[in-house]
C-alpha cells in the first residue's frame, strides 16, 4: 500500500506537471483565441514595400493604440496564394496590383467589398484618371467597390540618359534589347512576372492574351537571347548600383518605382522610359501598374481595416506613402491640391512628374497573362542557360 | 547501491515494467522533446507531402501524383544544369578551402602562439554580420569605380579586372563565406595530433613531408573530413553568392527552389526539387559517414 500511495503521488505529480506544460503550450493559442474574439486593437496588412514602413504605420499605431503588423512581399501571386493557403483569417488588408481584385480575388471570395457610401467621396479628390467609378477599384459588374487606389506608375525599362538619350530610348523602345551592340550592357530586374510581360513585348507580342505555339516559341528564343546578353539579374538596389557605377547602361523591367530612390539620391540622369510605341493594345509602348488595397474576406475582420484605408487618404499620409522608405511613387491623392502642395520640386523630379501623365497615357495597364505559367516555365529554363 | 541494484537483471513482471519506464528526467523532458521533434519533422513531412501533390496546386494530403518527380527527371528539363552547377561550386569550394584553411589551421595550432585566440576571433567576427551585407560589401569592392577599380586607377593603372557578375566571383564569395566552417573543424582536427608523435618521428629521421603525410594528415583527418562535409552541405544550398556577387550569371539549385515557391507559385514542384536535393545530400552524408570510422579516427578504439 505504501508503494501504491507513493506511485499515486508520483503519478499525480507528473499529471500536474503535464497539465502545467499543457497550459504553457496552449498559452499562446489561448491568447489567439481571445484576439479572435476581439480584434479592435489589431490590424494585419499584406502589402508591397512602403506600406510596411514605420513612417506610414507609426502615426496610425499611436492614433489608435493598435498593434499593426505589415508584411511586404515582392510579387502579387505569392500574396494571393497566402490567402488561398488558408491565411484568410490572419490578414485584414491586401495591397496588390490592379487586375487581381476584380478578376481573381473577388470571384474566389478572398476579399470583400467596401461600403461604397463611405469611400466614394475620396475618389472625387484623386487625379482625373481615377475618378468614380474607377475601373480597377470596382467589380466586373460595376456594382461593388473592391478597394482603394493610391500608388501607381509606368513600369517598362530604365536607362542612364548619359549613355542612351531619353529621345533614342523612347523612339527605339523595346528594340534596344534586340540590339546585339547592347549585349553585356544591360541588366534585368528580378521581377519575374514583369519580365514575362516585357520579354513578350521585346519579342513584338502582346503579353495579355492567349498565345499561339509560334508566339511561345518566339518568346522562348527571345528569353534565351535577352537573358544570355544580360550582364546581371538582380534586385532594385543592384540595378541602381550597377547603373550608377557604369556597369550597365540600361535595365529591363523598371520604372518610377525602381529608379526613383536613385534619382532622389542625386542621379537624375537615370530615367524610367516609356516607349512611344509597341505591340501592346492600341499600339501602346509601355505597361503601368496601379495598386488596389482591399479588405480580406476575413470572418473576423478588424474594424481598423476600414479606418486604415481612410487614414491613408489624408493628404499628409498620402504624401508619406508616396515617399515611404525604399521606393518613391506618385499617388492618386495628388489630385487634391492640399496633398500636391506637400511635394517639393526635388520629390516631383524623383517621380518624373514632368512626364508622368504622357507616360501613363502611352501605357496599357497591368493585366493577367492567361498562359503565364507556361511562359514562366519557358523563361526559367532560358535563365538557366546563362551559365 | 543503486548501481548494484541496476546491475541485477530485472526478474519479476513488476520489475520489468519498472525498468521499461522512463526516468523522471526523461518524462520531464518529454514536452520539449515532443515540441522539438514536431518542429523538426513537421516541415519535412509538409515538403514531402507537397512533393506528391498535383502540380501548381495546394492540394497537399488530398492528391497523390508522381508528376512533379517525373517532370524533374524529364530529359528536356534543364533543371539538372542548376543542380550540376551547385554541386560543382560546392566541390570547388571544398577543394579551395581545404588548401586555404589548412595552413591557417596549422598556424592556429602551432605557430601563432598567444595570438591564436585573437586570430580565431578575427575569423569568427564576420559571422556576426549578415551574409548579404558582407556580400554587398564585396560588390562595392569589385564594382566599376568601386574600391578596387578606383584605387588601381588612382595608382595609375588602367583599372580593376572585370570580375563582378561572373561564375568565378560566385566561387570566390562561397569560399569567403564558408571559410570558418572549414577552418574550425580542421583546427580541432590538427589539435588532435600529439606533439610527441611528431617529435618522435623527427627523432627517427622522418622528413617534413613524411611526417605530414604519415602522421599529421591521418590524425587530423576527422576534423578535415568533418570540415569538408559541413562546407559541402552548406555550399550545395548556397544562393546569396550567385545572386549578389554573381548577378545570377548562374542559377543554382536553391534559387530554382526559391523561384518555384515564389514567382512560379508551384509549391509541389519546389517541394519535389527540395526532396531530391535533400535525399542527395543525406545519401552523400551517410555514405561519407559510413566510410569514416569516427571512433577509430578519434582514437577511441
Automatic annotation (TrEMBL), chain B:
InterPro entries xrefs: MetI-like, MetI-like_sf
Main subcellular location: membrane
Keywords per UniProt: Cell membrane, Membrane, Transmembrane, Transmembrane helix, Transport
Membrane-spanning residues: 28-53, 83-104, 111-129, 135-156, 163-184, 219-237, 269-292
Signal peptide (from-to): none
Localization annotation: Cell membrane
Domain of life of the native organism: Bacteria
Domain ABC transmembrane type-1: 83-288
One Pfam family it belongs to: BPD_transp_1
Gene3D superfamilies, sorted: MetI-like (1.10.3720.10)
Family of this protein: Belongs to the binding-protein-dependent transport system permease family. CysTW subfamily.
Name recorded for this polypeptide: ABC transporter permease
Source species: Ancylobacter oerskovii
